[in-house]
From TrEMBL:
InterPro entries: PfkB_dom (IPR011611), Ribokinase-like (IPR029056). Residues 14-114 form the Carbohydrate kinase PfkB domain. One of its GO terms (biological process) is phosphate-containing compound metabolic process. Pfam families: PfkB. It comes from Littorina saxatilis. SUPFAM superfamilies: Ribokinase-like (SSF53613). This is Carbohydrate kinase PfkB domain-containing protein.
Amino acid sequence: MLSESASVEEMLKVAVDYCTDLLHHIPVVMVTLGKYGLLLGNRDQDDPESPIAIRFYPAGNVASDTHTVNVSGAGDCLNAGMMHFIIQGHNLDLSIKAGLMAAQHSLQSHSAVPASITPEGFTAEKVEEWARFKATDLTGSQSLRSF
């Protein structure tokens, strides 16, 4: 269990450990980390012994540009934005960024699902423009030293 004063590095280490354990049983794990972003772990679905990949997606603009009005619905919007992009055939990286962008819209709204979340407002181009950050590969423990 982490204390409220735990560093981002400590939090990520614990999340990576839990994620790694779960990936031996299920092929994809997403751990939301609140204002810090999310952790995504995956492996080949058909081979439980396949290599594990773990990436950290910082909250990006969510943390820096957002004046939080309401947290209700942010996780739902994150999932909906991500799933919308996956269904549209976009890659996982862009899909996660779309989810984070949808979460930002929710955090800035009094509504759990704001009217600003529309297919026209969430094109690949608009998500790429918004997402000025890159995921960090945390597959190797030495990657945690960069935080």
